[in-house]
Amino acid sequence: MSGGATRTTCPYCGVGCGIVARPLPDGTAEIAGDPEHPANFGRLCSKGAALGETLSLEGRLLHPHIHSALASWDKALDLVARKFSDTIAEHGPDSVAFYLSGQLLTEDYYVANKLMKGFIGSANIDTNSRLCMASSVAGHKRAFGTDTVPGTYEDLELAELVVLVGSNLAWCHPVLYQRLATARETRGTKVVVIDPRETATCEIADLHLAIAPGADVALFNGLLAHLVASGRLDQTYVAQHTRDLPAALSAASSMDLSEIAVATALSTSVIADFYELFAGTERVVTVYSQGVNQSSAGTDKVNAILNCHLATGRIGRSGMGPFSVTGQPNAMGGREVGGLANMLTAHMELDNAEHRRIVRAFWNAPTIAAKPGLKAVDLFRAVEDGRIKALWIMATNPVVSLPEADRVRAAIAACPFVIVSDVNHHTDTTALAHVLLPAAAWGEKDGTITNSERRISRQRAFLPSPGEARPDWWQMAEVAKRMGFGAAFSYTHPAEIFAEYARLTGIENDGTRDLDISGAAELSRGAYDALVPFQWPRRTGSEPKETRFFANGAFYTPDRRARFVPTPFRGLAQRRTAEMPLTLNTGRIRDQWHTMTRTAKSVRLMAHAPEPFVEIHPVDAAAFGIADGALAEIENLSGAIVCRAVVTDRQSAGSLFVPMHWTSELANRARVDTLVAAVTDPISGQPELKGTPVAIKPFEAAWQAYAVTRRVPDARGSAYFATAAASHGFRTEIALRDEPESWDELARQWIADGEDKSIELLAYHDGTAGQYRFAAFSGDRLVGALFVARGTLACARTWIAAQLLQSVPPSARLRLLAGRPGGEAKDRGPIVCACLDVGRNEIIEAITEHGAATVAAVGACVKAGTNCGSCRAEIKRILDAARIPEAV
Ligand SMILES: Nc1nc2c(c(=O)[nH]1)N[C@H]1C(S)=C(S)[C@@H](COP(=O)(O)OP(=O)(O)OC[C@H]3O[C@@H](n4cnc5c(=O)[nH]c(N)nc54)[C@H](O)[C@@H]3O)O[C@H]1N2
Ligand SMILES: Nc1nc2c(c(=O)[nH]1)N[C@H]1C(S)=C(S)[C@@H](COP(=O)(O)OP(=O)(O)OC[C@H]3O[C@@H](n4cnc5c(=O)[nH]c(N)nc54)[C@H](O)[C@@H]3O)O[C@H]1N2
Ligand code: SF4
Ligand SMILES: [Mo]
User: Could you tell me the distance, in angstroms and rounded to a whole number, from the CA of residue 221 to the centre of ligand 3?
Assistant: First the structure.
């Protein structure tokens, strides 16, 4: 590539978009979509496009630490190896564990898995994929005999009907969503969304089934029965390539349409419409994600969907098939190398003696794990009760992302030896580490990832590693060497690891395993560096071969037939009660990635939703006294969180939605997983992250404050606190229960750097109205502002945040204290289009003053929605609201 540009892949979602990165002198990089990458053909979403803004070294972990003190790599690695060896010698191999991540590269994962299963001899290696893809893996294995996604992205474009089950594709797989939306515009593809909430994805839905949480099995069981009853079976396919349909059908037929309607909270007519649409359309793709997987019946949900595709033979042919979309960039790669407690490696099985023999011989390993290890939730239970005595956490933040998160935090805190490898110094999990190891971040590390359609692409370094940061595979290999396994871990470059892994996929395979990329086993270092994206079952980039699975059967069961799996319906594991009358649903928002350790660095990305929030239906809001924009407390026996209420009828009555993202770093009481129950699917071990009973009530805090500061204000001890990056600093929402003795003192402390007398503090008080406003200046520059109100606090937040470090002449200072722009200046309002940085008020102006009447016209006027398109649903809502005359 020219001009210092590097082709690489996005580190966020499982779409796996190709990126062209050009480093800039200031340490950031210019980021563009790679026009040649077959996942995105040049497109990027808001998060991918903002990657350049997340590369700063602020907050990075740059050196190893032991007990919070700087240490050399040698010392840290020696200590880790010694502690692991000693613990194993004393308590056996199952007394140690690795907890890893679908964000590791295939090479990192392969080395960790090899060390644990072949050299330590335990299978206590699990990952956050247990919270993410485990039910899909288990469902695939039950039906297909192997963990295979049969289709390709192109199928979404070739389908006549795309059914999205528990997937908010518009926000979570935005580029795939764009591909679907474009196909729909040109070909009239029908789209059905099955989700309790009306999500942004519903913008392109012909039919939205606002299903009751947890009821998907009932719906798909009914569909299977309908397909059979209406004569839509593909008799030949069923006869030649499957077995056990009668058993599945009998389980599926136990509920009639009216019972299904009750279970799903859908009308019989809407269900019938969906069944007929599915039955009558040949080219159907069913895309599913966490609304399916993260369930105590997740594996059954997957199989209920697979049953319908097997029954109609709609699998592995162009434009049809079940399609589990992966969440993390390398969730699929992790599954391939076997980085879960119940797998071996390269799609070989722990409980298969032949497979164990093959792998052990190939690794020349002293041992091989013979039984499954502990799955994530159980693994942390074993940490809690002392069975696990040494734990290595890598590229994941379990104190935030695991259910019963406070229990997890306590368990890790009590564990005798904890190592955390991360790119950031301060996370909720790094705070508990005895040894902290600095990892090379995206842009600095090299390796491969596999996306949702089984496409293997290179991630390439284009920046030097800062400080002493080193790749995750290197850290694992160094510890392995120090544990005495040097010969098997003498890698000097990820290319060697990839070649070894590729070779293993072909060993004694002969078509018995779907995953065979052994054509890439002889790649030279140069060829590895130049590797173009390729999709298995192709063995390398070059061979023209079918890219889908199972059109002609050939499943990976002993008789090569797929299995229909009976899926008797059961609902959510925990039901609502009088004390806990609402179901807590959790998930993602458009511009944040998981625990926000990277996306929260970008001002643009924070501007869409700068605070943790809860969405609640107007009926529930009225019943529980929750006002739109007020703070609400959500609680159950596990804990309580506080966030901002958004009252909206996009939310179904009876349930709440809270984003999974907020951490203790960014807010003082918003880790939603402290409430989420750790109830798991009995087969996959995946927790039910979207259906915990809770109660909600108004959060009584009379005083609301908004601060704009250069450093995060020291206000975490307040009743409520949530901070977000702003240009040149931070914007922070604070609530206090009681009036402080002196607002002036508090203001000086929060916004004027305490005792720094060179900072001039301007104040406005109206004690009777309960209004206090402060602006702090250094010379003529605004260095801080604080707005306080008793009750509701109204001020132009985005505009105020934009004034930080700007020069404000004395004549404009009163205007600033008023909290509203004057004259030509405008408050842009919350940012709606993150890609092109367009605020809500700018969109309203395009509508009301420039006559924009459609989403496209708004785009033509102010550009909003013209890049990735994830904000179009929101623009549509602003348009709809603007058309309704103001209520009188
Ligand atoms: N912006 C953004 N994108 C991401 C991520 C991110 O953090 N931010 N993370 C990535 C990762 S790792 C993952 S796993 C994916 C997840 O991608 P998605 O699965 O699309 O995301 P979620 O928001 O977790 O959940 C999807 C939907 O499931 C619905 N749901 C809840 N309960 C039920 C139910 O019982 N039945 C049905 N049918 N639906 C239900 C929720 O209302 C929600 O809208 O996103 C990936 N992409
Ligand atoms: N309630 C609820 N909980 C959920 C979910 C939900 O929908 N609802 N979703 C679940 C799902 S699907 C997922 S995937 C998980 C995600 O949850 P986590 O995996 O906990 O979230 P991340 O923020 O992605 O954590 C990644 C960590 O690795 C660090 N990191 C980034 N790059 C690197 C690297 O190259 N090397 C190393 N060593 N570290 C790195 C980051 O700074 C961060 O601390 O959350 C799960 N939890
Ligand atoms: S769609 Fe996913 S992979 Fe593509 S740019 Fe966005 S976050 Fe990255
Ligand atoms: Mo995920």
Answer: 33
